[in-house]
Amino acid sequence: MMNFLLILLKSGIPIAVFSFTLVGWALRQDYLGGANSLDEYEQWKKAEKENRKAEKKLRKQNKRNPEPTAGVESVAEAPPAAKKNFDWLHSKWMEFGGGFYGVVAFFTYVLVELGEIRDFMVNFSDLFRGELISMIVRFFVASLQNFVTAIAWPAYWLQRIHGDQWLWVIGAYAGYWLGARAAFRVYRDRTE
Fold it and tell me: In which residue ranges of the chain is pLDDT below 50?
């Protein structure tokens, strides 16, 4: 029972809050284009990508007509009002995949970056010792390493978890699922 509470407190609740915040923010900014769930949004994104591939293939086959033709069948309708100009937050989340993997990767990125910023502030005195260039280079190299760490978040988190690793992953997924569902429900209630 104690292990279950620990998993809930360290895995489920933080991911639920992060997921709720991220999805709720994306809904308020209309980045999800009226989708009723993240699965629906991901299907639209996949269909959009397939449509672009089909258009490109058709243009290649018919070099005389470089314009996209109506001969390309749409796999699924695009989100009705999805914004195309995403800001930094949304683009980072989508860069990591957008779904569960993307939320946890972005969560990992934020946590690791906050640690780097903390270390930067602790070592801020190096700035006054003439190590500015070195400090900036270390910061950017560490940011790149943090991005790679975030992409490979399962390895990062499984190194820090000892025992019941699958329960931690299940707890994180449950948090993601509940947070995203709650964000859609809250948004729907506010807009109706």
Answer: 72, 74-76, 78, 80-83
Are 55 and 72 in contact, with CB atoms under 8 Å apart?
A: yes
Q: How far apart are CA 147 and CA 143, in angstroms?
A: 6
| Joined tokens for residue 156 | 């990062």
- How many CA atoms, within 13 angstroms, populate the side-chain half-sphere of residue 107? 29
Residue type, 137: V
Residue 57: the pLDDT is: 83
- Both tokens of residue 94? 């989508």
Neighbours of 177 (CB within 10 A): 16
Q: What predicted TM-score, i.e. pTM, was given to this entire model?
A: 0.67
Closest CA to 178 of 17, 10, 56, 29: 17
Cβ atoms of residues 98 and 45 within 8 Å: yes
The amino acid present at 108, given as its one-letter code, is T
pLDDT for res 65: 57
Main-chain dihedrals φ then ψ at residue 10, nearest 5 degrees: -100, -15
